[in-house]
Amino acid sequence: QVQLVESGGGLVQAGGSLRLSCVASGSIFSINAMGWYRQAPGQQRDLVARITSGGSTNYADSVKGRFTISRDNAKNTVYLQMNSLKPEDTAHYYCRGWIVFANQKEYSYWGQGTQVTVSS
User: How far apart (Å, rounded) are the C-alpha atoms in residues 5 and 109?
Assistant: First the structure.
């Protein structure tokens, strides 16, 4: 079994910062990539940032220059540093991991999410 557990969400004022963390655990052979998605009420779940095991990253245009994704492969952990937060960033943030098992099959798993609320 694989679990992804997020932490670090909360309520902040516009212009503030938060750092989200996500730890993957379970019968993991390797992790190809990890990413952060967010979903606001009435909206689709969209990619915020993604990082591969080799360190390649990509970001949604709306967060470029403000958010930074990083990872610690040894700890199966991914982080999202969020600076200059805007009310538009308010959403439930989900961690996603592309997990490789011993049979070399890849599956993606989702965490339960953590709420980020930015007040104006």
Answer: 11
What residues form DSSP beta bridges with 11?
117
Q: Report residue 27 CA to chain centroid gap.
A: 20
Q: Are 8 and 21 in contact (CB under 8 A)?
A: yes
Nearest to 119 by CA among 92, 85, 95, 68: 85
What does the CA dihedral 20, 26, 29, 34 come to, rounded to 10 degrees?
Answer: -20
Q: Find the Cα–Cα–Cα–Cα dihedral 39, 45, 46, 51, rounded to 10°.
A: 90
pLDDT at 1: 84
Mean predicted lDDT score pLDDT of the chain:
96
DSSP class of 114: E
How confident is the model at residue 83, as a pLDDT?
98
Contact (CB, 8 A) for 24 and 119: no
Tokens standing for residue 68: 């930074």
Average pLDDT over residues 5-19: 98
For residue range 29-61, list pLDDT tens digits in order.
Answer: 899 999 999 999 999 999 999 999 999 999 999
